[in-house]
């Protein structure tokens, strides 16, 4: 069995409170997954990640990037180490992306054929080739609970015809991904006896505990900003019968209204009994909004990347005026994977900790936040760490932002459960 | 009362097992103090520092650098925040250096007169002046439990006459330091009511709890590599009656035999009933050796700086051959404050985690170490983090090395207590 998914409660607007049972544990949905690009959620130790946010439940599932880990340290090394969970000492569920997005956004000199993509590493310029089959091989070696079909990511903006051609290639690759996966899924490292187990293996990591369990594979809906293509893509993928469905190719520069519209128009055509995942979103208000619309899984680099740039999220305080967009201290340019600002009334304020107004501010980042950073450190101290480029600044900022995201999702889960 | 110091047991070789009672708590001696240059032990959260090493007692006392904090964020800001303890949320004892060593090693365009030192900031080139009185003013604003008299640090090597002239200036400055300190020690911020206390103030941080307590001031013995000058310096400082005595100007490039000889020749002339502190040393075998000779306090950037360069300390395993110096993988050039290698038979091995032999090594750094890094992560994973320049690598490496140092000192304490 790969996964089972139960929906315990659903709202009028389509939001679902559920539970996703995976080989490495059960995940309460809707879930936000912190991104651990290179088998580490940047600057945050694993034990901290297990404890922060969501009433102490911590991050129940994290994501790692196939492209990065394939290049360094290499998927065969990770396979020999017993898979990604054991390699990084993370015993909870994980998801790997297909590598497609990074090949198209980071690698150099791409050459795309119907067979796959030839590209050069952004690390050392070496040549590599990713096909649907190779992406599956790499993802099976990594051994995340959830794998993603290999997809082409079309540039933005793209014409209807260009988008449709790309989508059709994605569908062909999805079919090939599934075929390879079904033939090889028994090779996942955590289902194999390990010849030289590390003394650091944790309880429950014996291959015996995974008897009969396999990874699962999600398809990725493409179709750009065209509702008719989104529908077509959803229908074709559902015909192929994946374990879950992702909505890809969003938050790539389009206005947030368009992102929301594309999500809504795609969700209509996805089965209600399977998990739905929107990749690479978003701001706290957006992840809450998408969860209320019926999205079960999301991931984003924003909380950790913003943290390293000194951007901290906090709740609007009772009685505090709603912030004006230009007055909330956003000075850093958002990174390539950030989403636009939500058009809904924001309940979240972004603080730029480097601003001089925080130099002697003895309050925590967010007086309503229960995270260990808000329980111990002042804005004045966090500003000092940031201005002094001290590594502890990135760590503490990341811990707070991740806790804020996990808490946001916990609030939505309670709301959807009617609590 | 500034401090009280009890010696509970002493060895034949002069080593002492004691306890140092300071305004922010009691420190078991001999103690190793991690260095928190800019009000942060680089890359390590305060709560981790409170828990690692020494059977879970963690770091009982840490050091911060007066020069760095004077420049950024500024001592007056820290005074307004209630002092360094509250600013960085560290409720245990602290020590600040005098700023002298950094002025002489980091600042540009120094101009020394008998009055003090004019220098330019290494951060922005701005002009500043440090005198003994100003160093005291800054250190009182920072509010560490132990302050250091302002000293001149002579270049190495230096002639006998040059060293004696410098030492005499240090003595004059020591007397001025003490005079200013005695007149102003009641100004320490933690003994003042704070007009706007932070909600993050911890239990026991009320000014009331410090009624009648002040900081204490240590003198610094100089005299370079000349035993007669070391004796003269010790005798002059003891006449001035400081709360404790530091041995400065060592580990600045001289052979380790000379460092040990200078420590031994100075300890003879320091009172047995006051704490003795050797600044800026050393490797694990050295700190153990100096503690056995009768040194009560030490600090060094080595465990954290080495960690950031991927150098990890571990115990020689039972039955393991003693390492040959050239075979232990030291490739990084040691930083300016590192000491030379101990001449004693080493019980410690330095691992360079970037070496390819660790790429698939599933053992912890040190199988005998109880630190959270050795309990959870493999050498293979730590190597991956280092090679990928992931910030978690610096954090985990620093946690292990600090725990190794704190454990080393705990073992020496037990040995000195006859346990």
Give the key terms.
homodimer, alpha/beta, three-stranded antiparallel β-sheet, 419 residues, 13 helices, six-stranded parallel β-sheet
Structural class of chain A: alpha/beta
Biggest interface: A-B, 45 and 45 residues
- Beta-strand segment tally of chain A: 16
Number of helices of chain A: 13
Quaternary structure classification: homodimer
Mean pLDDT of chain A: 92
Q: What coarse outline of chain A follows from CA principal-axis ratios?
A: globular
Strand order of the largest sheet of chain A: 4-14-13-12-11-10
Determine Rg of chain A (CA atoms, Å). 21 Å
Measured between the Cα atoms of the first and last residue of chain A, the distance is 31 Å
Write up what this structure looks like.
2 copies of one chain form a homodimer. Chain A has helices spanning 46-49, 66-71, 75-80, 84-88, 100-105, 132-142, 160-184, 227-240, 256-267, 284-293, 302-308, 379-387, 391-416, and strands at residues 4-10, 16-22, 25-29, 31-34, 62-64, 94-96, 108-112, 117-120, 127-130, 146-148, 216-221, 244-247, 276-278, 297-300, 311-315, 348-352. In chain A, strand 2 and strand 3 form a beta hairpin. In chain A, the strands form 5 sheets. In chain A, strands 4-14-13-12-11-10 form a 6-stranded parallel β-sheet. In chain A, strands 1-2-3 form a 3-stranded antiparallel β-sheet. Chain A is built from 13 helices and 16 strands. The longest helix of chain A has 26 residues, at 391-416. The first copy, chain A, is globular and about 60 Å long. With 419 residues, chain A is an alpha/beta fold. The A-B interface holds A 38-40, 42-47, 72-73, 77, 80-81, 87-89, 196-200, 359-360, 362-364, 367, 372, 375-378, 380-381, 384-385, 387-388, 390-392, 394-396 and B 38-40, 42-47, 72-73, 77, 80-81, 87-89, 196-200, 359-360, 362-364, 367, 372, 375-378, 380-381, 384-385, 387-388, 390-392, 394-396.
